[in-house]
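Long-time lurker, first post.

We've been arguing in lab meeting about whether zinc ion would sit comfortably in this protein at all. Half the group thinks yes, half thinks no, and nobody has a model to point at. So I'm putting the question to the forum: if I give you the sequence and the SMILES, can you give me back a predicted structure of the complex? Inputs are below. Any interpretation is welcome too.
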Amino acid sequence: MCIDVGTRNLAWCIIDVREWDKHSNHLRGIREWGKVDLLANSVVCQGISKSGKECAKKARWISRIRNGKLIAPLQYVCGIHRSRNETVRKKYKEIPKRNTKTVSRRTLHNILLDWLEESKGWLLQSKYIYIELQLTRNPSMKIVSHILYTWFLMHTKKRYRSSKLVDVSFIGARYKLCKYVYEYLGIANSYNYKSLRKKDFRKKEAIRLSTLLVRKDKKWRRYYRSTTKKDDLADTLLMCLWQYIRLIT
Ligand SMILES: [Zn+2]
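Top reply:
Settle the argument with this. Predicted structure of the protein with zinc ion, as tokens:
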């Protein structure tokens, strides 16, 4: 499993290397591939739709509070269930959007630890976990990467009984677009060392290579096509490939 560290886009890819087909430059055996927005507002609307079911759409409005009491009929509502009545509408205020700048570190770290606990069942199925080393100047990202590292270290099978995890380590980001990856894909002639020094080009290349890798896998090809922020997902997949290449060479 490889992890691309982020708060808005924490991405991962889990590969079963036993299923990798060395001779056909496309991947099989993607087990999990996805990302999570740790700052997403996950509160749902409490309104009831016309058919009598719970609305459960993402809530955008929250009831104001007076004297310790909610003054609107519901605590969380979407745009539709905020009511048409102007007086009632005013009883709601917009739920403030969380972003990396407004959320406190403490809150962010708690969200991350909650997510890890909730996802433990599938996260700890991997034998080896690689976390992309953060060379950024953003201290927040560095801290997040070390929380991930420590959490996994505490959940290796040596310390945590139901875990399959053998080890966790950091890996450098730059190797995922190295010459060997291009050679593996059979496109060594399009390896352009000079252009790869530019960040924008690297992003584009990561997406191009990932599209190439999943082209014969119906499920993941569809998933990848439909997703936004493709570069983070691409990074995790290419990191897996790079680790695999290191393993076999
Ligand atoms: Zn609603």
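For your lab meeting: DSSP finds seven helices and ten strands in the chain. Residues 41-97 form one domain. Whichever side wins, do check it experimentally.
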